[in-house]
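Each record in this resource describes a single protein on a pair of labelled lines. An example record follows, reproduced without changes.
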Amino acid sequence: MHQLINKRPAREPLYKRRWVRRTGLLLLLLFLMFGLYRAIRPDPNLRKVKQLREQFAQNKTLTPEQRGEMRDAMARLSTGQREALAAEGRQRFEDQLRHYSQMTPAEKARHLDEQIKRGERMRQQLGQRPQTPGGGGPGPRGGNQSPDEREKRRKERLNQTTPEFRALMDQYRKDMAARRQQLGLPATGGPRPRV
């Protein structure tokens, strides 16, 4: 009789207990939800860069603080994100060149005049800025590349464009140089077309 009174029911192993299984399942579910959120949410740095680009497109200028924000946000982007932004920019630029190529000669002249004025204003503003010692040199892409590295980068840029884009760009440059010559200005590059 003594054995019947002292005998306790055997306890289930910890992994078989219902509350342990439920807690583990809940933690796993929370972990998966967090991973899904991180995978599909827009990157705040990418969103900031796009927001500043839109502001620039509307106002045509960025304050020095906004330029600093843009630089910081771009530095925090992954290489893939920077490449995607560059591809978007190239596509936008190609669309602008395509639009330019469909303008009438009078519209082209007016457009080029606007671009030349804009470029000259920018050049004057850059000339008025105080020069800082050691500043204004080549950036991270650098001018300190070997000829082989420069050739490699040139080929990479060439591979990122289409023959149609190169033809449109060549025609735009020729038109810009001819218009600058008509206005008595040196045939420098000038800014990208804004359409």
